[in-house]
């Protein structure tokens, strides 16, 4: 039996031994990289783009490989690496025993800590006294096709700029709202965005006109942001979106404290910005883990910090996450489609319709449905063990 504890300082393994030591969770090993265990159930993993032709048997790969395939489809003439060229190079986050032998001892120890942190065991908590925050993407970290968006916006035409300003993902709208070349009319729209982090970026943009700032000072729903907008030189950057205090730590939630992170997550679930119930196969870049606080069992160890759970963000412009789930479920039920096919339908509708119109059209499909059947997916909560492992963040192009 292979030991679950890797030899962290062994020589690099041959190519055909990627899988040694990978902890199979019951769904097998990713056939593309052979260095990551697939999540369970199998359908929660990425559906390989090499098996989507009519008549193909679906092949599932890990979320990281799914993200890579999306990038290859976008950037390479031949698209995603074909299956006959699998396995590809192993993941950088695979076992530290795969490290190049020339790395120095400190680098090897850091890699060992990285593996310990992400192993899912309780060893990290025992050593460091707190639960590890998941190494996940978040709505405000540009990834994939969005990494260089700030540079692209310097040369795009006005129509494309407006397209990005109306993008469904908050990280894209936040990049646009903070960009020096954002037109005042778009800044005015972004200054009324449902996400406070995007309104902050817009109100802190030097291209913002005085009338928009005056409106924000009078109407913004967040008290501290209204007060900041009334100042001669509004100071909105580096402040907690929920309470306005200074963000004192590198924090993916852009809040001043764990307490604000937890409260913000709760509020956004209640108002529909996040959805805890979403269909398996939801676009990876629109899935995020947020903080949850247990008074007596924080992080599994008392006093060790929060735990995390999965939520979905809307991938349809103009709809919040709860409405997006409702629209997707109606299409799946009434058109007898898979989740991915239904997403494609919603994406096509979004080319010519706004979010509320899409939701109304989907609700009309749902009128004659059996209520128990049509709402089944809405009532299914997704647990961290079955959610996608890494949001891909590849995005799209206008």
Distance between the termini: 51 Å
Task: Estimate the mean pLDDT confidence.
Answer: 75
The major pleated sheet works out as: 2 strands, antiparallel
Question: How many β-strand runs?
Answer: 4
Query: What is the H/E order?
Result: EEHHHHHHHHHHHEEHHHH
Q: Walk across the major sheet and give the strand order.
A: 1-2
Poorly predicted regions: 1-16, 93-100, 295-303, 369-397
What percent of residues adopt helix (DSSP H or I)?
A: 25-40%
Structural class: mainly alpha
Helix count from the secondary structure assignment: 15
Basic shape? globular
Proportion of residues in extended strands: under 5%
Radius of gyration (CA) equals: 23 Å
Short note summarizing the structure:
The protein has helices at about 65-75, 105-120, 125-130, 150, 160-165, 170-180, 185-190, 195-205, 210-220, 225-230, 260-270, 320-335, 340-350, 355-365, 370-375, and strands spanning about 45, 60, 285-290, 305-310.
């Amino acid at each position: 039996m292979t030991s679950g504890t890797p030899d962290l300082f062994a020589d690099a393994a041959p190519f055909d031994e990627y899988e040694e030591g990978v902890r199979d969770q019951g769904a097998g090993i990713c056939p593309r990289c052979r260095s990551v265990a697939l999540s369970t159930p199998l359908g929660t993993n990425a559906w390989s783009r090499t098996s989507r032709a009519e008549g193909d048997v679906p092949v599932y790969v890990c979320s990281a490989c799914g993200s890579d395939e999306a990038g290859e489809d976008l950037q390479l003439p031949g698209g995603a690496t074909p299956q006959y060229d699998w396995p590809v190079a192993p993941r950088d986050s695979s076992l530290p025993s795969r490290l190049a032998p020339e790395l120095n001892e400190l680098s090897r120890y850091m890699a060992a800590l990285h593996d310990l942190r992400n192993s899912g065991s309780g060893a990290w908590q025992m050593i460091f006294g707190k639960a590890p925050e998941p190494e996940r993407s978040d709505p405000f970290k540009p990834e994939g096709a969005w990494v260089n968006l700030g540079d692209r916006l310097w040369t795009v035409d006005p129509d494309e700029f407006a397209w990005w300003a109306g993008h469904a993902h908050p990280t894209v709208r936040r990049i646009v709202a903070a960009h020096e070349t954002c037109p005042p009319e778009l800044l005015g729209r972004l200054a009324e965005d449902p996400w406070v982090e995007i309104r902050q970026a817009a109100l802190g943009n030097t291209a913002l006109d005085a009338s928009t700032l005056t409106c924000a000072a009078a109407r913004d729903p967040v008290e501290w942001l209204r007060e900041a907008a009334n100042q001669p030189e509004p100071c909105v950057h580096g402040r907690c979106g929920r309470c306005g205090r200074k963000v004192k730590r590198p924090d993916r939630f852009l809040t001043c404290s764990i307490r604000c992170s937890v409260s913000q997550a709760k509020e956004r679930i209640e108002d529909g910005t996040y959805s805890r119930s979403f269909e398996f196969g939801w676009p990876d870049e629109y899935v995020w883990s947020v903080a949850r606080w247990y008074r007596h069992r924080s992080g599994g160890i008392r006093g060790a910090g929060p735990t995390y759970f999965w939520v979905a963000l809307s991938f349809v412009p103009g709809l919040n996450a709860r409405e997006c789930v409702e629209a997707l479920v109606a299409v799946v039920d009434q058109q007898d489609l898979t989740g991915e096919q239904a997403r494609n339908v919603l994406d096509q509708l979004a080319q010519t319709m706004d979010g509320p119109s899409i939701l109304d059209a989907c609700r009309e499909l749902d009128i004659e449905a059996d209520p128990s059947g049509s709402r089944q997916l809405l009532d299914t909560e997704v647990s961290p063990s079955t959610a996608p492992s890494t949001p891909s963040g590849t995005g799209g192009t206008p």
